[in-house]
Amino acid sequence: MEIKYTRQFLNKLEDLFSETEYQLRYERGTFNSGYCILRNTKVAVVNRFYTTEGKISCLLEILRSIQVEPNDLGEKNKKLYFSLLQTTIEL
After folding, report:
1. What is each CA distance from 19 to 31, 72, 81, in whole angstroms?
2. Max Cα-Cα span within the chain
3. What string of DSSP letters covers 3-63?
4. Domain residues for 36?
5. Is residue 1, in this structure, part of any structural domain at all?
6. pTM
7. Could you read off the pLDDT of 48-77 as tens digits, one per residue?
C-alpha cells in the first residue's frame, strides 16, 4: 500500500484509531518523537503543531507499537490496518 500524506488519509487513520481502545489526542508538547503513549490510560498524544505528514508518521508508528484487536475494527478499518502492517515506511 502506498501511503499518501494527505488530510484525507489522516482522517482515515483517525477513524481507525477511534475503533481501538486508545484515545487519540492532539496536544501541545515537547515530545522527543512527536508523540507520547500513556499505556496505563490508553491515550496517545500527538504534537498538534506537527504538519499533516508528521501527524501521519506518528500515527503509523503508534499503530505499529500498540496492540490493536482486529475483531474490534470495522471491515473497512480492518482492511486498512492489515495493509498498513504490511507496508514499509520510507522517510
Report:
1. 25, 7, 11
2. 36
3. ---SHHHHHHHHHHHHTSSSEEEEE----SSSEEEETTTTEEEEETTS-HHHHHHHHHHHH
4. 7-86
5. no
6. 0.87
7. 999 999 999 999 999 988 889 999 999 999
